[in-house]
Amino acid sequence: MAVAHLLLIAALQQAEPDRVIVSPPAADIQVDSTVGFRAQVLDADGARIEGAELRWVLPNGEVATVDAATGMVTGVGPGSATLLVVSGGKVGRAAITVPQLPPERLEVRTGGLELRSGESIPVEIVGITRLGEEIPVAIEGVTNERRETAWADHLGRIYGERRGETQIVFHAAGLSQAMEVRVERNPVDGYEMLGLPAGPIETGDVVRLSVMGYDDERDAGSPSPAWVIEGSGAQIESEGLEGVFVAEEAGTYRVAALIGASTTVSEVIQVTPREAAAETRLIQLGRGANAENHSGDTWVFEGTDGRDYAYIGTFLYDWMRAWDVTDPTAPVLTDSLQLDARRINDVKIHPNNRIGILTREGASDRRNGIVILDLADPAHPTILSEYKETVTGGVHNVWIDGENDLVYACHNGTSELHIIDISDPANPAEVGRWGIDRSSKTLHDVFVQDGYAYLSYWDDGLVILDVGAGSHGGTPSTPEFVSRIAYPAGNTHTAYRYGRYVFVGDEIFPDDWDADKPIETRGYIHVIDVENMDEPVEVARYEVPEAGAHNIWVDDDKLYVGYYQAGLRVVDVSGELRGNLYRQGRELAVLKTTDENSTVPNWGMTWGAQLHKGNIFTSDLNSGLWIARLQEGPLVP
Questions:
Q1: What radius of gyration do the chain's Cα atoms show?
Q2: pLDDT, the chain, mean
Q3: Is the pLDDT at 457 greater than 70, yes or no?
Q4: Which of 324, 418, 507, 583 could make an SS bond with 248 (beta carbons 3.0 to 4.6 A apart)?
Q5: Phi/psi at 192 (nearest 5 deg)?
Q6: 592 vs 265: CA distance, rounded Å
Q7: Partners of 433 in the β-ladder
Q8: How confident is the model at residue 582 (pLDDT cuts 50, 70, 90)?
Q9: Do 524 and 542 form a contact (C-beta atoms < 8 A)?
Q10: What is d(CA 87, CA 41) in angstroms, rounded to the nearest whole number?
């Protein structure tokens, strides 16, 4: 009996999984096609464990699905996904790629523009797959039935020659699509370019140009020309009937509007260097050094006692530190508050300055959630209550709606927005939630302003919700979807609304990053135009070479960015924005946040920025609190 018992123990020990091997390790699967996968569970000696229990998981159901009993994977839609096979806590992986479907038909779109003789209009050729997806296609050929009436080129423009009707056939992706074309009589006897600046402009200034046709000095309508520039260092984009010009380099540029096959108007624009940054600098005022552990987010506020405070969370640590910053040149550490956590990523203060919110991740009991602070004595905050019930998986970031006493919390567990009522801060309760409808998703941050919530949904991009604006039927506790915009790189990390723009930062860390060593991050600020909230469009960027963006703040036409290893940076975002703001010279000032009091010597990792009473507060992942002031114009003795 003892021998049998020992044999059973040996068998159990031998059955302990060490790794899971999935084959094939990668596969391309067509939509509606199926590929079978196999999994081997091996012990520490590399021996196969027969009969091991397997759990098949494919998080991204929009790309492919898996039969949990057989391991058969079926393609659903174009994209990439990872097949996971779990056994005894060990995970094997296989890469799934579902190729883009080819188009089964073409659509030719003119946007309803009228074609007149001697002018041209742009056309868009779009491929439509059998799933109804629109995909770009390249024009491979054009058949012009009556070229003397109208014809088209391979770049997607139709040229009117004389009044009449004809048919043009576009060929792309092995398909053809005919288009009936009508050319109207053109009354114009001359054209003029409008919108030209009265004199030189600066780099980064946006100029909107158009062309007007005239008939005996009377307006005869605007054509839709193709816009081109002579000279490098500037760009011009067609937007409706306009050409949108912006220069990154000073110089003289000839801008031409190609109206028809033989009609062009052109003008010259002179561009000078941007002058705002010449006498603008960041001046360091004070430091709240912390070289004992890594610092997290910062929030600055005036306490109920009339003094100013900066609260800073910690990364891979369990303390929140309170600094008195009433004298920004000499911060004083007044207290530290310890939590059961491995990360206090976010700190927010209610507009009434009487309560605060700390986010918690990595609690020893795996019950994280948020911690609500009593700020009756802001120099020595205390814990008033905690909320864990529906957000035990950890909260990474929050936003406080002070008017409605709500906390919008980004929950790691569900990757959804949880809405928590704190009108009775001693007894918080969830009153709503919202998430995108897919199994694999990552919600990182939320920003709320004027009844809209801006969600940074990582690879799913920026998601905008109506949370009380009323435009789409949403309320503060029952959000309604407004729109979404994503970009191929993904990693949508943070967002901040200012005027007509949402400034969106992406965050890209190397796979082998170590918080105790120098980290080479990447990522930049995307400028999203939300003038039409239903159709957001990316129009500009701020990209510092060889560095990565983190948190941002915008005020008084200035963008403040914690740009990790590139320091605290201030950018002029006045006026209309187009192109690369960094190359245009819109950057005003830089402060590198690194000194000897650092967890990683000589390596700054600037976290973000917040303005308070004319000063700029930021934390550095490696060195704690920094306080600066933006000096515009010459220093006055």
A1: 30
A2: 93
A3: yes
A4: 583
A5: -140, 140
A6: 48
A7: 418
A8: very high
A9: yes
A10: 7
